[in-house]
User: Fold this.
Amino acid sequence: MTAGPAQAGRRRQLSFNLLDMSTVSHNNYGLWQHPANTKWRYNTPGFWPEFARICERARFDALFTADILGIAEGYGGSRDIALREGMHVPINDPMIPVAAMAAATSHIGFAITISTSYEMPFGLARRMSSLDHLSRGRIGFNIVTSYLPNAAENFGVPPGLLNHDERYDRADEFMEVCYKLWEASWREDAVVRDAGNNIYVDPGRVRRIDHVGKYFSVAGPHLCEPSPQRTPVLFQAGASGRGKQFAGTHAEVVFVGGRSVDAIRQNVRDVRAEALAHGRDPDDIRVLVGCTLIAAHTREAAKALQDDYQAMTRPDGYVAHMFGSGTDLKRYGTDELIADIVRRGGPGTAHLANYPYLPGTTVGDIIEAAGRISDHLGLFACGTGADVADRVEEWADAMDVDGFLLRQLTTPGTVVDFTNYIMPELQRRGRYRREYEASTLRGNIFGYPRIAESHPAARFRGK
Amino acid sequence: MTAGPAQAGRRRQLSFNLLDMSTVSHNNYGLWQHPANTKWRYNTPGFWPEFARICERARFDALFTADILGIAEGYGGSRDIALREGMHVPINDPMIPVAAMAAATSHIGFAITISTSYEMPFGLARRMSSLDHLSRGRIGFNIVTSYLPNAAENFGVPPGLLNHDERYDRADEFMEVCYKLWEASWREDAVVRDAGNNIYVDPGRVRRIDHVGKYFSVAGPHLCEPSPQRTPVLFQAGASGRGKQFAGTHAEVVFVGGRSVDAIRQNVRDVRAEALAHGRDPDDIRVLVGCTLIAAHTREAAKALQDDYQAMTRPDGYVAHMFGSGTDLKRYGTDELIADIVRRGGPGTAHLANYPYLPGTTVGDIIEAAGRISDHLGLFACGTGADVADRVEEWADAMDVDGFLLRQLTTPGTVVDFTNYIMPELQRRGRYRREYEASTLRGNIFGYPRIAESHPAARFRGK
Assistant:
């Protein structure tokens, strides 16, 4: 989107991103069973390129792929629920489908989740630059630090070695290494391609970064020539205090959660304040919130779809997803208050503290809500295109968000229904793009291709 | 290829693989300047899918992508020559173009070079399985251990920490972890997709690997369901004694070098003997040798092409490539014998010892040969399709090799000329496939999709 700075009350063009994962079930547990859901084809060759073209017709900023590096074992104390539900497992590496989707499309962006806890920055920076080249600048990097104990075990990190705040410290340094490789190592004019004199690169315009820090030692030079965006668009979802601070420092697009309009509005305010406190220009940050939308040609048809999806939805996967890091809600009585469990502390409750519960929420409330698609994931609307567009506009204006992260119930049903019913209505109201404005992801979100001057990565530019 | 066991003298169907790299110049230094060479497009979106389809028409077993993780600084004592020549830099990560190429093709395989020294096996195993799924079983893994000092610096490994033999020890354990993840973690019937009962995976059919070794600690389970090949086809080029031992243990397809037919024949014998010594079935190993082929409709036209390529070829890139790991030949007199330099030892000479020089070879001989395309890389043929096919048949029969790794002079010229002139001639003689025999890479090479019983990976199968 090319809208101006965030200002409450101003009618801005909204952006939509699609939430996805290279797995069978993500935020729609039980719905893999629906005959109209083709997501079981996630590991077949034709699926992703075809789906990316469907998403491009919806004019999404980006197809956003979540990721995990271990299996959630929190709920029920084992990996059984995750496996049975196909909840994030089996899963493929997100970069592989993105590379295939980029080749099949021309404008939609791809935001890829990468854990800074288990990657080395040199290799990751090269993979991201490679994707940015081969997509002509349509790559985003969703920065996560990984919380699953099983992920730590898979990379030989003893449980508890990297605690929550240390993971963010490592992520800060990881990003600094990447910024140096992306922004500082190659001058824009380094590739001279002087065929008469057999000079492909001018060696004087490429330099080492010689980074030596607490977690990483990286010499450089970067191995890729400057890509269209250099630094990919940086996405982040930080719910904790340290997470919001990290987002305020690094993220260009921030996801915020919250189980009520008021809670979300407060989180949006916090993120914008953090960014300001870090010297960022408010115009260089976009805030998104998740939503679930069901639309059809009549209210009755939409309600019938909702009932249909509801009938196949199972709460187990949702609860296991939300509490994947060791908080086994099966160990508590359904009447116990989440606030009490957090206050007492114990294994996994640090993550539980980040769950956006309201005062008075009990274990039973969470499990019950998890089984209702109208409720379990926050913002929900169902109706005609106009009904849904009304809700979307209300939310955006009430919460001061710039756009949405759309959750899928069926694939490609959610996207197709968005394109047929919701998109035309938002376009008529002047609140959604009719065509992509630019050819890079950052161009489509912000109107410029390279990271903003107010971002810390820009400090390394031309240095 | 579906040929039977290697037997000297038997006329077998031959295989061809294409040697490539996700960079502008690889084994054809100076030739990026040729107007017919489109390789400078290596970092643009359309290039790789289009090129993969051209390669598929050539019926190659695989497009083989070399890789490096640092810049060669040996020759001249700095990275200047590498950058000026575009010698392996700038370079993109090989997995990204392979993912796009796999989506654009249906039969050709893709062998990807990965360093076991700077990757973690859990993440790499997942990426490989993801590629194997999305290509429907057409992925190969070329196992390397990385020798460039700059690569070590990029991953925070102090120079000399992992010496040559230790790199192979780490690679052995790396492969063991991968075998456990690929072969032992998921039962073939683990994904039940029982829609009536909401069971996607049967949890009892997926297990951890709980690997604890000297270099790695990896819990598992693997995150991907079983892919068509499970273990990708394993490629390796080990020239040293430890390298040949590693190849004998792990490799299904082995590249051998040598600067004469006799030297290559001896290396082929050594590799086959190593494999036998490790209990491998000789029928489960294929040996390839590199070659440079120029073909046209007449001998004169082929010679004119050779002269044309020769005129743009520069020796610097070749010398810098061959001696990238610290042996600075510029420090020695052109009359000095390579054997003497190796005998005296010193920085980088361990790698030099692996260079297949003949007794009496001097520094000047190497530099001079590097500038001749008919000589610098071993086997070379130039002529009509029939001329070249004659030489190819002679080589295969004299050296007991199963096929070739074709080097490129121009892209896609080398492949197009192979397809138009050499392929039809070999097909007429019954020594090259007319159509792919199978849909997986291993199927096309060996006639079966999963790794052979005699391979050490098979020990973990069903365990």
